Amino acid sequence: MAEKGIMAYFTTPAEAEKCVPKLRALRALDIQVDRVGQFPGSGVSETFNPISNSDFPGLAYLTLGAAPMDRDAGILGAAEPDASGLSDGSRELMAAGQNGPNQRDILLTVVVDEASYEQALRVIREAGGSA
C-alpha cells in the first residue's frame, strides 16, 4: 500500500506529543517531533567556560544552541536579539507572526498508509496542529 507523509506545525511540544498515541493507533510508520529554528543545531550538550575554552564556537552556539558556524555567520548569529540580549524584542513579541507567542516552531512529521491519511490529518488538527 502507498505511504503519505504529513508535516504539521504546533506551538508547543506538548501539543504535538498529545496526538502521537492516536497516530500510533492508526499504525503510523514513522513519527518524529522536532523544534525548528533559524539556526541549525540541537543545542549545547556540555558545560564549559567560554572564556577559557580556546575552541569556543560563538555566542549563538551558547545561547541559541546553534551549530558551530564560520566566522561571518557566527557574527550574524551573535547579533540576533535572542542571542545577544542587546534588543528587548518587544515589537516582535507583540506580533503574532514568526517571533510572536503564536510561533509554530514545533514540527511533527508522520508517515502513514494512504488509507489512514485523512484520519491522521483530523487527529493532528484536533490537537491544534496545522498541516
- State the distance separating the first and last CA atoms: 22 Å
Silhouette:
elongated
Annotation, overall tally of beta strands = 3
Helix content: 25-40%
Question: How many DSSP helices?
Answer: 7
Content-based structural category: alpha+beta
Protein model, in words:
The protein is α+β, with helices and mostly antiparallel strands. It is built from seven helices and three strands. It has helices spanning 13-18, 20-25, 59-64, 71-79, 81-84, 90-94, 117-126, and strands at residues 3-10, 30-35, 106-113. Strands 1-3-2 form a three-stranded antiparallel sheet. The chain is elongated, with a radius of gyration of 19 Å. The two termini are 22 Å apart. The model is unreliable at 92-100 (pLDDT under 50).
Keywords:
alpha+beta; 131 residues; three-stranded antiparallel beta sheet; elongated; 3 strands; 7 helices; single chain
Layout of helices and strands:
Elements: E1 3-10, H1 13-18, H2 20-25, E2 30-35, H3 59-64, H4 71-79, H5 81-84, H6 90-94, E3 106-113, H7 117-126
Antiparallel strand pairs: 1-3, 2-3
